Amino acid sequence: MKILGIGSNYVTDIKDIEDKKKGKKFIFSKPESSLAVNCDVAYPSAITNQLIYEVELVVKIGKEGKNITKEDANSYISEIAVGIDYTATDILKDARESKYPWEFAKGFDGAAPISSFKPVSNYNLGNIDFDLKINGEEKQKSNTAFMINDFADIIVFISKYMTLQPGDLIFTGTPALGKGEIFKGDQLQCSVNGELLLDFKMI
């Protein structure tokens, strides 16, 4: 399984999307061992003291594809979940300053908590609300209409470089506002179209 993600993929104003599309796409990866499915997550205090959260919709690939066209791209999505992309920002800063790869900043155990998946047929891909509450307070909220690169754009881009296979997961970007630091003891709740799909605690 590949776990891939795209950086900086949401705007606060839909009018900004076309201009932002001209920028380069930034893709990163996480190992399968970073997944934590519908369970509490241990704060990785042995490696970091600065953990940043980003809520994201996650799409699962349902069939194999390479050099996928824009017209066909959405047909490769089988299911959708919601998840958190955790980043150990102190590790990331050190890696960037040393010009080293930064997999450890995003790929540690528990760096990708996700919900169970729902059939893609449940959703209108261009109009999905999702949000994150921490300790009952809303921290992030957006809609897929605010994506710079929509699901199809991401799939087309990735498939130019690597074959997408059934079971591959793609984290599709976080809302433009609201990401921040998470702490031990925090309760996170993520909803999609008002339905609570992910509810877990940092322990």
Give an overview of the whole structure.
- The chain is an alpha+beta fold.
- The protein is 16% helix and 33% strand.
- It has helices spanning 17-20, 70-73, 89-98, 103-106, 151-161; strands at 3-6, 27-30, 35-37, 51-53, 55-61, 77-84, 87-88, 112-114, 118-119, 129-134, 137-143, 169-171, 180-182, 187-192, 195-201.
- The strands form four sheets. A six-stranded mixed β-sheet has the order 2-1-12-5-6-9, covered by helices on one side. It has a four-stranded antiparallel β-sheet with strand order 11-10-14-15, with no helix packed on it.
- It is globular.
- The model has no long low-confidence stretch (mean pLDDT 97).
N to C succession of SSEs: EHEEEEHEEHHEEEEHEEEE
- Main sheet record: 6 strands, mixed
The helix fraction, in percent, is 10-25%
Residue fraction in strands: 25-35%
What is the compact description of this entry?
With 203 residues, the protein is α+β, with helices and mostly antiparallel strands.
